[in-house]
Task: structure prediction
Amino acid sequence: MELHAQLVDYLKTKTDGKFLMTPEQLEAEIGISEKQQSKLRKEQNFPIPWKPVGRSVFYSIYHVADFLLSGEVKQEEAPIAEPVEEKPIKPKVLQPVKSKTPVQDLSFLAKMKFLAAHVQEQATELQSLADNLNRYHDSLELKMKLDGSLPVSDKPHQIVKKI
Result:
């Protein structure tokens, strides 16, 4: 479940915090072109549920996460986020200060530091997601080997180093 939540968070960052994906955004994640998605939707063969809104089509990031993890989608409704009421921020009125020497604008340093911190945070999240997906893949592969669905080589393995 943690992996599913982590994948949903990743997809939410890809959609700018929204719970819906466009076909273009979905193409970047699953590799099926928008045109092919449209054709499969018309034939009712597309594996991910969609919602038409006017001329646009949207996919729930929860359904996309289910599809990416298991190859199939649970038909449960995605939780609807309640809109959060934001309190209006009153701008402060600053009195102009007259100085005799020009002030050097150093705001770019703060912006650069914020950008570096943001990129570092995203890199950490993506690395964690990649590690979890690799662990998930390895566990599925091991399960398939144990269930006998993957062929196991009959050749003896060579010992690289004897102790």
The chain has two domains: 1-72, 107-149.
